[in-house]
Amino acid sequence: MKEIRFIMGMPVILLLPNGTNKDIFKKVFDYLNWVDEKFSTYKNTSEITLFNNSKISEKEFSSEMKEVFTLSKQTKNETYGYFDIFKKGKFDPSGLVKGWAIYNASKLIKNSGINDFYLEIAGDIEVSGKNTDGKLWKIGVRNPFKKNEIVKVIEITNRGIATSGNYERGMHIYNPKDKYNLTDEIASITVVGPNIYEADRFATAAFAMGKEGINFIENLKGFEGYMIDKNGIGFSTTNFNNLIN
Amino acid sequence: MKKYLLSGLVLVSFLGYSVYIKGSEVTKKIKTSSNPSIFRFRENEDDNPQIIQKSITTNLTTPKTSTVLKPTTSPVTTPTGKYKDGTYTGNVADAYYGNIQVQAVITNGNITDVIFLQYPNDRNTSIEINTQAMPILRQEAIQAQNAQVNGVTGASATSAAFVESLTSALSQAV
To answer: Scanning every residue of chain B, which has its alpha carbon at the shortest distance from the alpha carbon of A2?
Structure first.
């Protein structure tokens, strides 16, 4: 069973085994809408916007906001400062919230007793259990130069996979380290991690590192990556190709 | 005497020239062998073998210029940030345009600071070269695949492409 919604300005795709209670779709989409209301930097009423407009202080944060705030700081520390949520004095955790939201929604599905599922928001994916054929989930890596083409196919489960690229929506990726735009060097970087939260935040940071990003992923235990540079050359981490059947 | 001088001069210049030629030949050799391509068939794909271009990098032409932390006293990284506390100094990495050395400060299991002890940032070209330094990883030109997949990962698109993507996604949902 497949359902698609348009939430956070992005397509959300949820695949559940045939015969699953429809309530689970509703539960997931309701949760993601709630996240959007709370964390959208485009909405005047979101907690993020209220904070950025000095309507509320850090002390008044909801527990979820506190969590995202803490995770953002932690990620900044773990990525040599390449992941930065403060831009021009405004707090913008959008490079992390999407993965975090998919991860939490995945937990909702599992807590409902469903182990086989696929949940995607605009190219960032969490897969669990088996696909509809009873096999590993087959995921294509989009060609950053031709969006209807895939250039890699990997087979994974119980993992998250995220891609950051130059054609990313919004401006949440930038290089805070120096004025040279390292991100011009690469077209996209795909990261496979233990879950979508981890994959998404490290894909965001690795992309900001330019060509060094794949090196960064290579050194992260439990992660694999595939980077495509501006000339259409793909670079795989050592064990990325083990994911290809 | 003049004759000897002249012939000596000719000999010396000939020797000098041949050394120069030989030297440039060596340089040329290094240059042409700097990125040789080995073509081989990928394993585990018997029905549809693909040519993989694997790059071999030699120390002669590609200095180890990784700016990724290589601490001498502890393993590199884990995603959860559980490091041993302390200050770790990395090896000096010889980039032919200068040296790179970093120091990491770990507090409560997290990287709290990374200091560049040496970093050749005096010229724009240095930055440019530095960003191109790559570990020895598998490289290949990207190629279109024809497999049926459950989903596709990619960076989110601009709003116009978004609508297009949504439309195509919805068409599959029917």
So the answer is: B173
